[in-house]
Amino acid sequence: MTAVAAAERAARGSYGRLLALLSARGMGLAEAEDALAEAFATALLIWPRDGAPASPEAWLLVAARRNLGRVARHGAVRAAAQGTVEMLIEELAEGPEFPDERLKLLFICAHPDIAEEVRTPLMLQTVLGLDAARIAAAFLVSPSAMGQRLVRAKARLREGAIPFEMPEPAEWPERLPAVLSAVYAAFGAGWEGEAGPLEEEAIWLARLLAALLPGEAEALGLLALLLHAHARRAARRDEAGAFVPLDEQDIRRWDTALMTEAEAVLTRAAVLGRHGPWQIEAAIQSVHAQRARSGRTEWGALVALHGALVATRPSLGAHIAQAAVLGQAGRAAEGLAVLDALPSQRMAAHQPFWAVRAHLLGLLGEAGAAAAYRRAAGLSSDAAVREFLLRRAVNGRG
Amino acid sequence: MKYMLIQLETAEEVSRRDNPEQAGAYWGAWGAYVQAINQAGIVVYGAGLMPPASATTVRVAGGERQVQDGPFADSKEMLGGFFIIDVPDLDTALEWAARSPAASAGSVEVRPLLPPMP
């Protein structure tokens, strides 16, 4: 790891912790961000050169105190921010460790009163300190629109409508899925590309969540899923940059260490004895990963798992994936029936639907395969995927 | 909301149109995109343009007419075509812009249309 990467990692670990702490002690989220932003930027200049300090939190707090006068929006805010920072510096002098309040931060970011589309961006910004422009690019949103959405969401938090606290245990079954979905959405941003622009960040969040909630099987399931998917990133394109579908990937390009970790995490989840959709998704990836040892894919096992996923969480994506796997298992006609049952209006511009439909039509030797491949290609935003689909349109291959 | 998707291509990309080895892939990608965007039912109007060299540029400066072969100015990226689409919001327009072959080999500028003149 380079010095810059090491410094970024240390700073990232501290940023969310401090932001959560400042917010938990009554400072508004936006004010806390102002207090920390410049300290964080300075750290990333200095730490790669001098090494990360022994206590990154103390360093950042002292720097934040120094910057407060310049960055706080007005006098009252500055005074409040100054007070909270002073209090934390004193606490830090007394004990070596702060409490970790980041779980609260993750829960308020995915609060039901926060618009779904802004939950993931809010998480990336508050917990990881990513800037709005980078988040906007990953989600293909204009930077100014993304900035406005974040400001509006933070204003809702400041108005006190959403308290900075953990939901009651009774609310967890309802609230945790939103947190997990928001983390997954970061991983899925720009999914067609060679590597998602936020894969590392999503895994970082999933690891944090799994560490803060070691007894939640679904948090572990999500982490296992992301680790498995991330383990194959180098195999998604060949040496020439061409797209390679999952079941044709060169297993020598899979990351064995990540796959082993994913399996261990999934086993820990299974021991907890509470099944759920994220664990099923991880198990699906686990079956694909077994090709590295057995040399073949167990399509029958995948059909069963996708059936279970659709029964647990019948999302459009789950149905489309189920149709694809039915095709690979020699049941293409059944796969087409699954696709035909989906709402056609919403599928008109949905790339995965057309790619899977083309594949199934090709397997059945139907004439419509080429047109469906071309349509899927026309809906692709990645040049390698587009070329792959157009080649298949010409070859007429399933 | 109506937006124009302004398709800008590099000179290298434009040259693929006539390159015997690359013309198939070039036109294949555009054909697929045009088919997909038309089938989505959002296109108000759209067209590809003949290459920049086919342009004739007219200017009337200080009462004097100037007519020039070729585009007004050489730039890194050239106008290759455009679509006017009617979509609910800018996010959707950006999605269609990203799918354009020009986005992978040039850029696509997305601009809202002014309301019609009274």
Q: Write down the overall geometry of chain B.
A: flat
**DSSP strand content of chain B:** 35-45%
Number of strands of chain B: 6
Percent helix of chain B? 25-40%
- The shape of chain A, in one word, is elongated
For this structure, the CATH topology of chain B is Alpha-Beta Plaits
CATH level-two architecture of chain B: 2-Layer Sandwich
How much is the average pLDDT of chain A? Answer: 91
Radius of gyration of chain A: 23 Å
Distance between the termini of chain A: 42 Å
**Order of helix and strand elements from N to C terminus of chain B:** EHHEEEEHHE
Enumerate the strands of the largest sheet of chain B in spatial order, edge to edge or round the barrel: 2-5-1-6
Q: Main beta sheet of chain B: strand number and arrangement? A: 4 strands, antiparallel
Biggest β-sheet description of chain A = none
SS class of chain B: alpha+beta
CATH superfamily of chain B: Dimeric alpha+beta barrel
Number of strands of chain A: 0
Count of DSSP-assigned helices of chain B? 4
* Uncertain segments of chain A: none
Helical segment tally of chain A?
A: 21
Biggest chain pair contact, residues each? A-B, 21 and 23 residues
Task: Provide structural commentary.
The complex is a heterodimer of chains A (398) and B (118). With 398 residues, chain A is an all-alpha fold. In chain A, 70% of the residues lie in helices and 0% in strands. Among the domains of chain A are: 3-100; 214-293, no CATH class. Chain A is built from 21 helices and no strands. In chain A, helix 2 crosses helix 3, helix 16 (316-328) packs antiparallel against helix 17 (332-340) and helix 19 runs antiparallel to helix 20 (369-378). The radius of gyration of chain A is 23 Å and the shape is elongated. Chain B has a single domain, classed as 2-Layer Sandwich (Alpha-Beta Plaits). In chain B, 31% of the residues lie in helices and 37% in strands. Chain B contains 4 helices and 6 strands. In chain B, strand 3 (56-61) and strand 4 (64-69) form a beta hairpin. The longest helix of chain B is centred in the first third of the chain and has 17 residues, at 23-39. The mean pLDDT of chain B is 94. The A-B interface holds A 140-142, 145, 348-349, 374-375, 377-383, 386-387, 389-390, 393-394 and B 25, 28-29, 31-37, 39-41, 90-91, 94-95, 98-99, 101, 103-105.
